[in-house]
Design a protein that fits this description.
The chain is built from seven helices and eleven strands. It is elongated, with a radius of gyration of 20 Å. By secondary structure, the protein is of the alpha/beta class.
């Protein structure tokens, strides 16, 4: 996924590191030049110097091509302006905003910003969840939502590449039910050897999808 983070403070830097570790593409916007240079030296990310509440800066960071935009500066007003631009001007797929003052959350939401949080921990968890689930597609639900049927393609350099199904410890409450490889459909068994690029379809109990996608997203170290 491609992510644009506005705000290179402790939170922004921490979020950038988390996303980079998960092999996502990150662009980071910071308006303090010295801080910007420091971030550019320490992060394997595209770092942009400028005010993220300006269209030209957001364009330079390629927000128009991003999957997620996060406004996490220490200034709620800047975060709100940037979030509105991301939502209304750039039509960003997902916009997440930090509210430094919890009293501003209702105001942000009234102005159309749905994902507003004030806790650093909540922001990190929300972003990780979005990043995870973006790789999996819901095919159908069973038993009134008590179970999901989902599909996912094993990524390049998958940690499961070359492993037999019986060697993989799938999360409790999940079951691999089909495999598509080079356009050919098959029902996997214990001896089936997985390959990167395989499209897997699995059924999972309610609440188990994230554990499953985490397993299927693992990259070789």
């Amino acid at each position: 996924m491609r992510m644009v983070i506005m705000g290179g403070g402790k939170l922004g830097e921490s979020l950038a590191r988390i996303m980079l570790e998960r092999r996502h593409t990150v662009s980071l916007i910071e308006k303090d030049r010295a801080r910007c240079e420091k971030l550019a030296d320490s992060l394997d990310a595209s770092v942009f110097w400028g005010d993220g509440s300006r269209v030209a800066v957001l364009e330079a960071a390629e927000l128009q091509d991003a999957d997620v935009f996060m406004a996490v500066t220490g200034q709620d007003q800047d975060n709100l302006v940037a979030a509105q631009l991301a939502k209304e001007y750039f039509h960003a797929k997902k916009v997440i905003v930090r509210a430094n003052d919890p009293r501003n959350i209702d105001t942000f939401q009234l102005l159309g910003i749905e994902n507003v949080v004030s806790s650093t921990e909540v922001i990190s968890r929300l972003i990780e969840q979005e990043a995870d689930l973006a790789h999996m597609h819901l095919v159908a639900t069973l038993n009134r939502g008590k179970a999901d049927i989902c599909s996912m393609v094993l990524p390049q350099n998958s940690a499961l590449d070359g492993k037999a199904v019986r060697e993989v410890v799938f999360p409790k409450g999940t079951l691999l039910i089909s495999l598509i490889r080079n356009g050919s459909f098959s029902i996997p068994n214990g001896s089936t050897v997985l390959q990167e690029g395989d499209e897997l379809v699995a059924v999972s109990e309610e609440g188990r999808s994230r554990a499953l996608v985490k397993l299927l997203s693992e990259i070789k170290k």
